[in-house]
Amino acid sequence: MQQDSAMTALDFTRTIRPGMPLFPGTPQPSLQAIARIEGEGFRETQLLLTSHTGTHIDAPAHVFPGGAALESFPASQFAGSLAVLDATGFAPDSEIPASFLEENAAARAAEFLFFRTGWERFWGQESYFEAYPVLSAGAARWAADKGKKALGFDTPGIDPAEDASLRLHRIVLGTGRTLVIENLCGLSAAPAGLLSCAALPLKFEGSDGAPARVIGWTP
After folding, report:
1. Which residues of 12-42 are buried (b: 16+ CB within 10 A; e: fewer)?
2. 3 pLDDT exceeds 60?
3. Kinase: present as a keyword of the record (predicted)?
4. What is the CA radius of gyration of the chain?
5. Residues 153-210: pLDDT tens digits?
């Protein structure tokens, strides 16, 4: 007798809450009740947060005047095949070279590339925002030239925290085809090989970035 296959869905998303770690200078989110079951008979919450709070997706509009906003991308941009790449062997303040991607069959095949550096172990500490590994410029160009749908990181950014020029953002987002996802978590639960992925940003007008629910699954 044929049995239905079970699907395991993995959540790679940080929960938005007041007091959560944010890139220095970013206002804290506020979740304020504006209706309560005890009073109005229903519950409703007002959310005040920036477009780059928690696990979020960066659009070209984040760094380029006139760059495409997230809502202008088709829905197909936000779903596809995923490879979670083990980058835990790279030291703090190091660069992940293009060869790391070129020599990896899953990286070549997948539409989404998530880099598991292990840096999420510092979540909640000041060190989370310091000295995390990043892509080399060559690796960023390789992924963007291949037309990957998005590059995701379990770190606060694709660029080093001290790089005000946002060079890697500009390399990746400059193609208009590849997006950036930051502050992923739970990547260690992902199995080897290709998964399916959905990274669905909040849809609002003129979105330079947006918080997103990011999940992966495999039968």
Report:
1. bbbeeeeebbbeeeeeebeeeeeeeeeeeee
2. no
3. no
4. 18
5. 999 999 999 999 999 999 999 999 999 999 999 999 999 899 999 999 999 999 999 9
Please, what are the domains in the chain?
8-14+50-218 (3.50.30.50)
Coil vs helix vs strand at 44: strand
**CB under 8 Å to 14, separation ≥6 — which residues?**
20, 54, 55, 123, 183, 185
Among candidate residues 70, 67, 64, 38, the one with its CA nearest the CA of residue 52: 70
Angle ∠(63,65,66) on CA atoms, nearest 5: 120
pLDDT digits (tens, 9 = 90+) for 90-114: 999 999 999 999 999 999 999 999 9
CA distance 50 to 24: 13
Residue 210, beta-bridge partner list: 57
Put simply, whether the predicted model's pTM sits higher than 0.85 gets the answer yes
